[in-house]
Design a protein that fits this description.
This protein has helices at about 5-25, 35-40, 45-55, 70-75, 100-110, 125, 140-145, 155-165, 180, 185-195, 210-215, 220-230, 240-250, 270-280, 290-305; strands at about 25-30, 45, 60-65, 80-85, 115-120, 130-135, 150-155, 170-175, 200-205, 215-220, 235, 255. It is an alpha/beta fold.
């Protein structure tokens, strides 16, 4: 928290811990939010991991220190719990680039196609899909679909292009991407790699295909964390929150952010002050329409069935 003393940060954390115990909350935080917020969370991870951990908890309420689409995932897997957001307007630009009607139009043109939807999507899009995927398993999911079956892949076309490259399958896609990852060009990534020649370059599959091809590994945030557990010299090609987390966890390791510009403005709306306010006021509750929740869960269950 820029401009805030360590003593003030400590007091904020103590207040939050007291409030979450008093109100029986389980706090989940994404890898991209401020590390001070991560410190007070009961679990820190990627979007689906967070939702699953909340479901395993005995808490009556879940507070999501992340963006709206991840709050929807938490509610989907915790239907009987009260799920609240820290910030009312923290959202995902990628998730809102394509609307339901655009997807329905693709489905009308390709009625026999499987619809594979990236988990970091609005619930309405996931409800229109047949299979959910994550950045970690997207390649495996597509590989498991019969080769004679058409596949609509939404919403991130950069992940879709990476899947095409890895599988040799042709996907039907809309043109949309995550601005945080898409902004990094091959030239910039290559320059950073040349500057640190004995470092491993890890990038998220939301990056451009040419950047993914340049990387030593293309990984989800959780996979990046596992990689850094075992390696000492790493360039991290994803949102800077993960770099901050790992630098704090492993001060002895040599870690470099691919670019200081890789910042999600919505993730950075989540602050300790907002967490304390959310716990005290309990305002921003997430609810899913019954049919939307039912269809979204069916799509997610298909993913688990395919993965065994």
């Amino acid at each position: 928290m820029y401009g805030t003393s360590k003593a003030e940060i400590t007091r904020s954390k103590e207040k939050i811990i007291s409030l979450k115990r008093e109100h029986n909350y389980f706090i989940i935080a994404h890898n991209y939010v401020d590390t001070d917020v991560q410190d007070i969370a009961d679990y820190v991870g990627d979007s689906l991991q967070m939702a699953l951990k909340a479901a395993d908890s005995d808490a009556e309420k879940v507070l999501v220190a992340s963006i709206k689409i991840m709050g929807e995932s938490a509610k989907l897997l915790n239907p009987d719990k009260k799920v609240l957001m820290v910030h009312p307007y923290a959202d995902c630009r990628l998730a809102n680039l394509n609307n339901v009607e655009e997807l329905r139009e693709l489905k009308r043109k390709h009625p026999a196609a499987e619809v594979v939807c990236y988990v970091n999507s609005a619930a309405e899009l996931r409800a229109e899909s047949t299979i959910t995927c994550t950045s970690a398993n997207c390649v495996k999911i597509v590989q498991a679909i019969p080769e004679d079956k058409q596949i609509i892949f939404i919403p991130d076309s950069n992940i879709g292009k990476w899947v095409e490259y890895q599988t040799g399958r042709k996907l039907i896609m809309l043109d949309s991407n995550c601005y945080v990852h898409h902004q990094i060009s091959f030239v910039e990534a290559n320059q950073t790699k040349a500057q640190f020649p004995d470092f491993s370059l890890l990038v998220h599959p939301e990056c451009r295909l040419e950047v993914c091809k340049l990387a030593d590994e293309v990984l989800s945030t959780s996979q990046m964390i596992n990689y850094v557990n075992e390696h000492d010299k790493v360039i991290l090609g994803t949102e800077t929150g993960l770099y901050d987390q790992l630098r704090k966890r492993y001060p002895q390791k040599l870690l470099v952010p691919l670019s200081s510009r890789m910042v999600c403005e919505d993730m950075k709306l989540i602050s300790l002050d907002m967490v304390a306010k959310a716990l005290a006021e309990e305002q921003y509750e997430i609810n899913l329409d019954g049919e939307t929740g039912k269809k979204s869960l069916s799509s997610l269950q298909r993913m688990w069935e395919i993965l065994g």
